[in-house]
DNA sequence: ACATCAAGCAACCGATGGTTGCGCTTCCCT
DNA sequence: AGGGAAGCGCAACCATCGGTTGCTTGATGT
């Protein structure tokens, strides 16, 4: 039984830089492309692109304020993403436990 | 507190096709590039490449047998990957709950 | 012995993560 | 009020990656 997941959402958080971006936004509450890029080993433009894809999948949400553009995490969408992570993790975990159980049963019967 | 994770392992399971590959291998126990490609919407060569990266990060393990090359999941490594999924999920979940708690406290105090 | 099936190269293509460089708007400071 | 600095957006470019097609090579089974 394959877990049905939204590939867009998953691959959004599949990128390590974007994951760190989400981490930073969660830690500081909000940030701009420039402020975030100062705490990451990539340029502002790269951060801006990542914020773009995070925005597109709804994980993050921007509010322009003068010459700045503050981003912050969309909590509901992030919760959905976490749920998907858990779903896949649980499914694989169940498979692993089942395999182990069968393996033990075989071992016992020999 | 950022969760320390192995980016290689994560981005290995970040790709949707590779995730389905792992699913298939878990479901059927083992498979070759050819047999797996028959159950996926991609060519054998694409599957072979994916099996290559899964092999490189140790999520999967090949045993050549004649002209075939049977792959199967490395359970220990997959367990480690699942643990990382859970770690990130838990960290974000904790953050979300904390934000919600603070938000409620602020609301109450106004 | 020979056709067949599985795997391995190699070249190519589009998308993506990253960079540099430039221009434009908004702010702030004297 | 004017002008430099700050922040953003756009464009071109490059390397890597997921995917394809085409061909070769090696084991299998009649």
Automatic annotation (TrEMBL), chains A, B:
Keywords: DNA-binding, Transcription, Transcription regulation. One of its GO terms (molecular function) is DNA binding. Residues 1-93 form the HTH arsR-type domain. It holds the Pfam family HTH_20. InterPro entries: ArsR-like_HTH, HTH_ArsR_DNA-bd_dom, HTH_MetalResp_TranReg, TAT_signal, WH-like_DNA-bd_sf, WH_DNA-bd_sf. It comes from the Bacteria. This is Transcriptional regulator. It comes from Pseudofrankia asymbiotica.
